[in-house]
Fold this protein.
Amino acid sequence: MLPIASGAEVRAYLRRLIKAHPRMLALVVVLHVGAAVAGLVTPACWATWSRRPPRARPPRPSTASPSPSPASS
């Protein structure tokens, strides 16, 4: 059989953990929430970005000298 803790034992362990490592526990919670938000927001942003039509690029200025046009006879 597996050793299973009772609800009271789990709550007592959690209280000890919070008292012993409050900053680390807060950091873990903040990072977990940040990862969850990024996981929800990124696909929506990616879908919006991928449907966007390509940007129109302005014409490049010509740096070469213009080619002479053929002389009409």
